[in-house]
Structures are given as C-alpha cells and as structure tokens.
Amino acid sequence: MIIIKRMFNIIKLNEKDNIGIAPMDIPENVDLNIGIKSKTKVPYGHKISTKNIKKGEFIFRYGQIIGISLTNIMQGEHVHSHNLSFSEFERNYKNDFDHQISNNINNELFFNGYKRENGASGTRNYIGLISTVNCSATVVKKIANKVNLKLKELNFKNIDGAVCLKHSSGCGMNTTSYGMNVFNRTIEGFKIHPNFAKVYVIGLGCECAQISLYNNDQINRNVEYLNIQDEGGTKEIVNKVSINIIDQLEKINKIKRTNIPVSELTLALQCGGSDSYSGITANPALGFASDLLIDCGGSSILSETPEIYGAEHLLYERSTNKLNIEKIEKQIDWWKDHLRKSNSALDNNPSPGNKKGGLTTILEKSLGAVSKSGTKNMVDVLDYAERIKYKGFNFMNSPGYDPVSVTGQVASGANVICFTTGRGSCFGFKPAPSIKIATNTNMFNKLEEDMDINAGAIMDSEKSIEEVGKEIFNKVISVASGEKSKSEINEYGDDEFNPWIIDPTL
Hints:
3 domains, single chain, alpha/beta
C-alpha cells in the first residue's frame, strides 16, 4: 500500500517575514511547503513561525514590524496573542516630495449618473430628510415612511426613495467646540450631496444645532428648512412636508441619468482589516481599483485613523507635500490624547472578531488596511467630513467604527462605497450605494446574499489581485450607473447614518 503524505502550504508574503499565513487549518506535526514541520495546531488564517524567534525580537509581516515576541518561539509554532504583543517603535520613511501627478487621464470611460444644477454628479436620485437634532428624528422617519409608501404605489423609475438621516445628537453640545464644527460639517455635506434631488433639513427649534446654521444658501431651491415648533407640532409638519414632497415626485422623476465621465466618481474605501486575508486579497484588490479610478481622473478616500496607526509611514512616502504628513501626525497625536483620557490606547484594536480571523496587533491590522489605498500619491489629508478639494487619493481622519467613518466619507463627497470584509457584513448606506467585497471564499459562500464580489478567488489561485481589482472597478461603474448592490437589493442602509460625536454631552 502506498501512503501519500499531504503537504500543507503556508503563505509567506515577504522575504523579510519570520511568519507565514495558514490558508487552512494546519494540524500538529505535519510537513509544510517551506521545508519544516508544524509544532502546534494553527487555525485557518493565523500565523506560523518560519524560523526560531527569540523573546523580545520583532515579528515581521508584509516586510513590516507587527509586534514583539513575548516568549521564545520555535520554528513551526502558532503565533498569536499568547506570544506576540504590540510594541511602539520609531518608523522611518523616505520622501523627497518629487512626486509627479500623472496627466495621462483616461477620459474615455463614463457612467450613467445624475447631473445636478450646480455641476455635481450623483449616482442615486434620493429625497433627503435630515434631522438637525435627535428631537426631530421621529418626524423625519415618519415623513420618509409616508413618502416611500406613496412611491411604491406610483412606481416611479427614476426616484430611489426618501431617506431619513436621523441621529442621536444635535443638542447638549458646546456650540463653539471642535465637536460642534465637525457635526455642522457633516450636516452640510449631506445637505448638498449630489445623490439627493431634494433635501429637507428639519429641527425642533430650541436645539444647539439651529437650522439657521445650515440655511446659508437661499439660492439653492432644492433645500428647505423647517422647525417643528414653528409649524404647529409633529402632525402638522409631517403632513405638510409629506404633501410637499408628494406634489414634487413627478418633477423629480423627470430627472434622468446621463453619460458622465468616471472622473466625477469619488470612492469611499471602507473597513480596516477584518481578518488575516484582508491585506492579502480584498484590500490590495480594492487598492488596484482605486488606482484605476484615479487614472480616470476620479477620487478615493481612505479613513479610519486608528486603523492606519503603525502603517502611516507608508502614506507619508506617497504624500505630495510635507503638510499632509504633519496633518496625519497631528491627527494621531490627537487620538492618543483623546484615548488617554478614557484610559484606552490605539493598540486596543483589533476586535475579538479580528483576532479570531487571525489578526493579533493594531500594527498587523493597519498594514493590511492601508493596502486599500493603492499606490497613487496622497494629494490631501482631510478632517472628518471636510469636503474634497483635490482629485486623486485622499486620507480623511475618522474613527475605525464603520458607520461613523462612512458618514464622514460621504459627507466629504463620496458617491460610491467599497466595503471589504473577512468576517461578514450586512452593511448598507443611503444615499451612497455600498459594494461589499469578501476576503475569503468560505465566508463568501456562507453570506453570498450579502456579498457583491469574492476576492477570496485570489487566495484560491483562481484570479490575480489585478483581475479582482478590475472586477471591483467595473462593479463600481455599474453600481454608479444604477445597478443595485446586494445591500440595496436587501433594502439596507436606512439606519447607518452616524455622525461622529466627539465632545461630552452637556
């Protein structure tokens, strides 16, 4: 009888690495493709040492430091939270700022979108109902529900629906604080977002976030401002606004899609790193798609400052100027101070789900997360919800919490979202469509009704990073042109609007 010994493969990402990644569950004492045996069991997606590592030595992944060994680690051992820890260290980068912005823009690609009177380009045609304060949240929800019921009855093809943007803030705030400025920018960004054909900004009347703060564009006929206290109460305002919108539906439905250059798309690059495969499959593929979009004159926004920490030097190397680097340095210093006040730290990430998926330290998570940004020069660094000023790749300061981060990206001008996930997600976001990209085939097959693209094909050796990147890019154009993403088919995205609350509630 012939006994065939199975060879177990591990993935080594860089020559400098002293660990590899397990693309399957690896048993104890089996042969590995790098000429060693496993000393312990290693779960799917987790790390295995490729050489003996002494206590206190740096551990490398992607050719970058992801932490320090807590113990002596033998070749072939499982490497995770029990023997690997976060460690601060000096990060070096090289940048002479001699970056050339390419003028070879591909102007031949178009999407079918909505051209607004002010020249902005939308990918959806929604009616927006924005509450300035939680006290008007129920009112905007009731109005949206009434309008959406009417839209189902009328079956207008060119209206995507009414969206209620309700939240838990708007009062009990310091009106002169940084947090209030951030909140105001967020409301402003959604008020003028090109995915809205018509917007109603509705307050209670006595809150800190007064509608007078936003009623600054009287020439914009597509935005209206109302207070519940001025309109005779909740029933009166619900009926008044509902009737007003319903009377305009026929007019809004006459707005039709037209050919618009792909350069008018702004892509939100979302979710840091869900599992060990994020930085191997979905994130670099999304980075390739981002590069393709920028080659067409478009823009992309990376965010989640706590989830670039430890990999920020990779962005510094691509910055077009010193000021951008100084902005990120200040943002990270702010975060450290902010977390110190709550007895926390940036290395408290990853989450339990991230760790189960094979990630151990914030450094490892961040290195994978930054790969979403592709290779193009970083043209600007934005504060949360700050409007994009320059075409190309931008970084925006935000928390790592996805709904809060996406809210800031869309307020900055993103009209399409790409969301990578290794653990699974049902995320949707209105008014910007969300495309979800699975990092591994196993999860994609389990949650296919929620996933748009399977980047796990890269790990399965069925497709290259470039092939999946082109697939993502083409999906962005299709969805921008009206094709529904999985989250839209499932009617998700009504409850994810989540402005960043920074200051204490007074």
